[in-house]
Specification:
The chain has 222 residues and is α/β, with parallel strands linked by helices. The chain is built from 9 helices and 8 strands. Strands 7-6-5-4-3-2-1-8 form an 8-stranded parallel sheet. Strand 6, helix 7 and strand 7 form a beta-alpha-beta unit. The radius of gyration is 17 Å and the shape is globular.
């Protein structure tokens, strides 16, 4: 495992895509650290990665406690059960999996300040995936207005596990189109100017289609 080289390579690939498509906005690496420990996180910090994503509550709490004195931006990228909201909600900077009103209620109940949230969208319409259907998102965003501790900064999706780039690209295009529709609503609490999409195997396509956060795991740790 050569984390230094891996980070350098991923950053170079992102820069190449940005240059090719003349993208002026930041594309941030959110390191998905589900399968690694604090040593690997420390190594990533040394290479300038500051955004880290965890998707299991207990593992997140363990790592956050060990690394609480480090300059880390924590993202919770997994499905969050309502009965576990209280444990994590004031320890994270971003939530990538807002997908139901019951979760919004718990966030509003326990969060001390406004939380940056991505609404999770099941663009691929797979039964195995969490998230709202595309046609449910706009009404859900409008419903969030009553929850003053939530700021809908963007949308999140996962593409199908397939080698067919056309299918992957169409999934990301759906999210980009939906983002534009929400931005047209001009909601102060939902600027929706970010897209969290793309992982180790498909982040190139995601950036081409408008991703601003890419959740990368295995490419950093191989």
């Amino acid at each position: 495992m050569n984390i230094k080289e891996n980070v350098k390579m991923v950053k170079e690939e992102i820069a190449t895509i940005k240059n090719k498509y003349l993208l002026s906005y930041d594309v941030k690496i959110c390191a998905a650290t589900k399968y690694v420990g604090v040593d690997e996180i420390d190594s990533l910090l040394e290479e300038g990665v500051s955004d880290f994503g965890e998707n299991r509550v207990n593992a997140f709490l363990e790592k956050e406690q060990l690394l609480h004195n480090k300059s880390i931006i924590w993202h919770f990228i997994g499905s969050l059960q309502t009965n576990k909201v209280k444990k994590v909600i004031n320890k994270i900077d971003y939530l990538h999996s807002l997908d139901r009103e019951s979760l919004a209620k718990e966030i509003n109940k326990y969060r001390d300040d406004v939380l940056n949230c991505f609404i999770e969208v099941n663009c691929s319409e797979e039964d195995s995936k969490h998230g709202l259907n595309v046609n449910e998102v706009k009404s859900f965003v409008q419903l969030i207005e009553k929850y003053d501790k939530i700021r809908v900064i963007g949308l999140m999706t996962m593409a199908e596990n397939t080698q067919d780039e056309t299918i992957i690209r169409e999934t990301f295009k759906k999210l980009k189109t939906l983002q534009s529709e929400i931005q047209d609503l001009n909601l102060i609490y939902a600027p929706c100017n970010q897209l969290s999409m793309g992982m180790s195997n498909d982040f190139h396509i995601a950036i081409e289609e408008g991703a601003t956060f890419v959740r990368i795991g295995s490419r950093l740790f191989k």
